[in-house]
Automatic annotation (TrEMBL):
<dbReference type="GO" id="GO:0003723">
    <property type="term" value="F:RNA binding"/>
</dbReference>
<comment type="function">
    <text>Component of the ribosome.</text>
</comment>
<dbReference type="GO" id="GO:0022625">
    <property type="term" value="C:cytosolic large ribosomal subunit"/>
</dbReference>
<dbReference type="InterPro" id="IPR029064">
    <property type="entry name" value="Ribosomal_eL30-like_sf"/>
</dbReference>
<keyword id="KW-0689">Ribosomal protein</keyword>
<feature type="domain" description="Ribosomal protein eL8/eL30/eS12/Gadd45">
    <location>
        <begin position="33"/>
        <end position="120"/>
    </location>
</feature>
<dbReference type="InterPro" id="IPR050257">
    <property type="entry name" value="eL8/uL1-like"/>
</dbReference>
<dbReference type="Pfam" id="PF01248">
    <property type="entry name" value="Ribosomal_L7Ae"/>
</dbReference>
<comment type="similarity">
    <text>Belongs to the eukaryotic ribosomal protein eL8 family.</text>
</comment>
<keyword id="KW-0687">Ribonucleoprotein</keyword>
<dbReference type="InterPro" id="IPR004038">
    <property type="entry name" value="Ribosomal_eL8/eL30/eS12/Gad45"/>
</dbReference>
<dbReference type="InterPro" id="IPR018492">
    <property type="entry name" value="Ribosomal_eL8/Nhp2"/>
</dbReference>
<protein>
    <recommendedName>
        <fullName>60S ribosomal protein L7a</fullName>
    </recommendedName>
</protein>
<dbReference type="InterPro" id="IPR001921">
    <property type="entry name" value="Ribosomal_eL8_euk"/>
</dbReference>
Length: 177
């Protein structure tokens, strides 16, 4: 079972389903019965909401999209998850996360609670996330970038070549060539 099959079980209700639930509750209340409502266990979404759930250590598993633009919106989330010991995964597409929560896109989603039947599956995914992302020393200590543009590379090559020629001239003038 993948992460998305587990999260599919905990999708939030659609607006139509919510409307239907409210109508049924109103009909039950009109009939004199107390409407029975328990908050469903669903995927939480929205950057602000996910952040507060991580800070309160209520999030069980956090999924972060890799194609968020600007990246500064989510680039600090892995560090926060590591600090709070919350397992996180970086997944491929923000549109795929958005489809889980009936939106176009979602930068980050998280699970807070699951049914007892899915607890073992969640535990497996948490262990995988801890191993691949939270406690991965390569991801922590590897600096990205450092790639210079073509103009800078040409300038440095030209400078190195000039220095080599200068060194050759010095050696030739000393008679050691």
């Amino acid at each position: 079972m993948t992460v998305f099959t587990l999260l599919n079980k905990y999708r939030p209700e659609t607006p139509a389903a919510k409307k239907q639930r409210i109508k049924e509750a109103a009909a039950a209340k009109a009939a004199g019965k107390e409407p029975e409502y328990t908050r469903p266990k669903t995927v939480q979404y929205g950057l602000k909401n996910v952040t507060s759930l991580i800070e309160e250590k209520e999030a069980s598993l956090v999924l972060i999209a890799n194609d968020v633009d600007p990246i500064e919106l989510v680039m600090w989330l892995p560090a926060l998850c590591r600090k709070m010991n919350v397992p996180y995964m970086i997944v491929k597409d923000k549109a795929r996360l958005g489809a889980l929560v009936h939106m176009k896109t979602a930068a980050a989603v998280c699970l807070t609670q699951v049914e007892k039947a899915d607890a073992s599956q969640l535990q497996l995914l948490q262990n995988l996330a801890e191993e691949k992302f939270n406690k991965n020393p390569d991801a922590l200590r590897k600096w990205g970038g450092g790639i210079m543009g073509l103009k800078t590379q040409a300038k440095l090559d030209k400078r190195a070549k000039a220095m080599a020629e200068e060194e050759a001239k010095k050696l030739a003038s000393l008679g050691r060539a």
